[in-house]
């Protein structure tokens, strides 16, 4: 069974800092990997989807990379803002989506 | 936001009672999913649907059943609720083809269910 791990579980940074969130998975036989954002009491919002044949995807200040052979993905957030405070989840798709437990990010003004 | 609504948004019920949660979409997407989210476990797939009347089990399907009689509605039923089913339940939708879709999933706002 696919296991998805996100470290750290929580992260607090000052505004303006660049930061990296990590996601690792145990089975490299995946179709794609997706990063989501979840605000407290809300559903998930899709941020980026990387197909298994791709190495990275970018959207605005966000850049996600995928190294399938090592079972790792990173989400890079540039110039962090207080509005980026949320929980970030990664999910990998093999025969279904398997989710990590998330990294709770707090950006301090 | 994708046009996905869930009802009810909050429910408290007692052990042994049946409970039905509803997911409604206005996007005409083929695929619909039910997940539960629990601390320490992340989101886990309960059941999914790949078309009207076409459903399959996910990772944690025991104690749950689903039905989809129309494209826009996907119902999740807890046949006899237990305290272990206290959770936040999310519905999601996606496009795609075949029995499995690898497309982006769009999530509803969630239903918080408490079983006493």
Written description of the protein model:
Chain A has about 110 residues and is mostly beta strands. Chain A contains no helices and eleven strands. In chain A, strands 2, 4, 5, 9, 10 and 11 form a six-stranded mixed β-sheet that branches. A five-stranded antiparallel β-sheet of chain A has the order 1-3-8-7-6, with no helix packed on it. The termini of chain A are far apart. The mean pLDDT of chain A is about 95. Chain B is an all-beta fold and about 120 residues long. In chain B, the strands form two sheets. In chain B, strands 2, 4, 5, 6, 9, 10 and 11 form a seven-stranded mixed β-sheet that branches. Chain B is globular and about 40 Å long. The N and C termini of chain B lie far apart (about 35 Å).
Q: Briefly, what is this?
A:
Chain A has strands spanning 4-7, 10-14, 19-25, 32-38, 44-51, 56-59, 62-67, 72-77, 86-93, 97-99, 103-108.
Write the layout of secondary structure elements.
The complex is a heterodimer of chains A (109) and B (116).
Chain A: E1 4-7, E2 10-14, E3 19-25, E4 32-38, E5 44-51, E6 56-59, E7 62-67, E8 72-77, E9 86-93, E10 97-99, E11 103-108
Parallel strand pairs in A: 2-11
Antiparallel strand pairs in A: 1-3, 3-8, 4-5, 4-9, 6-7, 7-8, 9-10, 9-11
Chain B: E1 4-7, E2 10-13, E3 19-25, E4 31-38, E5 42-51, E6 54-57, E7 64-70, E8 73-78, E9 87-94, E10 106-107, E11 111-115
Parallel strand pairs in B: 2-11
Antiparallel strand pairs in B: 1-3, 3-8, 4-5, 4-9, 5-6, 7-8, 9-10, 9-11
Which structural class do you get from the secondary structure elements of chain A? mainly beta
Mean pLDDT of chain B: 93
Shape of chain B: globular
Number of strands of chain B: 11
Structural class of chain B: mainly beta
Please provide the count of β strands of chain A.
11
User: N- to C-terminal separation of chain B?
Assistant: 33 Å
Following the backbone from N to C, one meets helices and strands of chain A in this order, namely EEEEEEEEEEE
The fraction of residues in strands of chain B falls at: over 45%
Instruction: Determine Rg of chain A (CA atoms, Å).
Output: 13 Å
Instruction: Give the biggest beta sheet of chain B.
Output: 7 strands, mixed
N to C succession of SSEs of chain B: EEEEEEEEEEE
Overall geometric form of chain A: globular
Low-confidence stretches of chain B: none
Low-confidence stretches of chain A: none
Mean pLDDT of chain A: 94
The oligomerization state is: heterodimer
Number of helices of chain B: 0
Cα(first) to Cα(last) distance of chain A is 41 Å
């Amino acid at each position: 069974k696919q296991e998805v791990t996100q470290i750290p579980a929580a992260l607090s940074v000052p505004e303006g800092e660049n930061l990296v969130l990590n996601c690792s998975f145990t089975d490299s036989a995946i179709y794609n990997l997706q990063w989501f954002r979840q605000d407290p009491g809300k559903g998930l919002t899709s941020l980026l989807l990387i197909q298994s044949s791709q190495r990275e995807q970018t959207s605005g200040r966000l850049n996600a990379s995928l190294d399938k052979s090592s079972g790792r993905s990173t989400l890079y957030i540039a110039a962090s803002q207080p509005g980026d405070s949320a929980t970030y989840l990664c999910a990998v798709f093999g025969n279904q989506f398997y989710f990590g437990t998330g990294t709770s990010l707090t950006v301090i003004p | 936001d994708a046009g996905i609504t869930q009802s009810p948004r909050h429910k408290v019920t007692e052990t042994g009672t049946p409970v039905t949660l509803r997911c409604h979409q206005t996007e005409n997407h083929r695929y619909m999913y039910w997940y539960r989210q629990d601390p320490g476990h992340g989101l886990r797939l309960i059941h999914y649907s790949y078309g009207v009347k076409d459903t399959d089990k996910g990772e944690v399907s025991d104690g749950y059943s689903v039905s989809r009689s129309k494209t826009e509605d996907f119902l999740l039923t807890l046949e006899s609720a237990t305290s272990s089913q206290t959770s936040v339940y999310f519905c999601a939708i996606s496009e795609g083809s075949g029995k499995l879709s690898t497309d982006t999933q769009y999530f509803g706002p969630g239903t918080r269910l408490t079983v006493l």
